[in-house]
């Protein structure tokens, strides 16, 4: 039996990579209300298979597999495949095909804001990223339901319904160099996901001055 990787990576003989996120509501990973509250999502790569390499996790859109059999997730839908990607999950199947001794099976789609689709005996697509306030991102509305997801159409559609947003944002996708957990640089990331939060200025010496104000009221 194949299981989803933590973070919503699609299940399969070669499972998809999970996503990492920052969200406003706690809960089980795939709790829909909790998934809706994500304000940052870093995508995961699609799983590879015997005939094809999975697509890396993308930025606004996940990458397709090398032979384009598995499609990457987008800002508004999980990509179509043998099993489609979904909101917060890569597509995947819990089965093995072909002769048992060869263990032929499926790969899993990468997770993300929306997950990548999967493919029989070929690589799957990577997931998409999301940052509230990042140009090109499309935010879900608070009223969205699991079976009826809707998106902002007015104002800045990149800003999460909570109003929390980020400025001067950059997304480095899985085809580009990024800093690893140990401080070195790598193309994409192999292994467990991680989130690094760094202060950009020293807040340890902030002080406050008390300024008294006096008011005199006259009654006539």
TrEMBL record:
Membrane topology, from the record: Single-pass type I membrane protein
Single annotated GO MF: transmembrane receptor protein tyrosine kinase activity
GO annotations of cellular component type: plasma membrane
The protein's Enzyme Commission number: 2.7.10.1
Domain of life: Eukaryota
Subcellular location field: Cell membrane
tRNA processing keyword on record: no
Transmembrane helix in keyword set: yes
InterPro entries assigned: ALK/LTK-like_GRD
Coiled-coil intervals: none
Pfam families, sorted: ALK_LTK_GRD
Disordered, as annotated region: 44-77
Descriptive protein name: receptor protein-tyrosine kinase
Species, as recorded: Trichomonas vaginalis (strain ATCC PRA-98 / G3)
């Amino acid at each position: 039996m194949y299981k989803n990787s933590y973070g919503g990576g699609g299940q399969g003989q070669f499972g998809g990579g999970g996503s990492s996120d920052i969200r406003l509501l706690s809960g089980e990973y795939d709790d829909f209300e909790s998934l809706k509250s994500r304000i940052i999502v870093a995508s995961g790569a699609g799983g590879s298979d015997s005939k094809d390499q999975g697509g890396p996790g993308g930025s606004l859109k996940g990458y397709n597999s090398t032979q384009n059999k598995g499609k990457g997730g987008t800002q508004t839908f999980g990509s179509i495949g043998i099993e489609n990607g979904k909101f917060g999950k890569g597509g995947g199947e819990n089965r093995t095909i072909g002769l048992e001794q060869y263990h032929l099976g499926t790969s899993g789609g990468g997770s993300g804001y929306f997950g990548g689709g999967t493919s029989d005996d070929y690589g799957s697509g990577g997931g998409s990223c999301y940052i509230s306030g990042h140009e090109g991102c499309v935010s879900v509305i608070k009223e969205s339901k699991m079976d009826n997801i809707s998106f902002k159409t007015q104002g800045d559609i990149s800003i999460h319904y909570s109003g929390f947003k980020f400025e001067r944002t950059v997304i480095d996708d899985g085809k580009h160099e990024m800093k690893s957990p140990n401080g070195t640089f790598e193309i994409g990331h192999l292994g467990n996901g991680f989130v690094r939060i760094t202060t950009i200025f020293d807040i340890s010496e902030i002080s406050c001055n008390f300024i008294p104000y006096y008011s005199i009221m006259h009654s006539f």
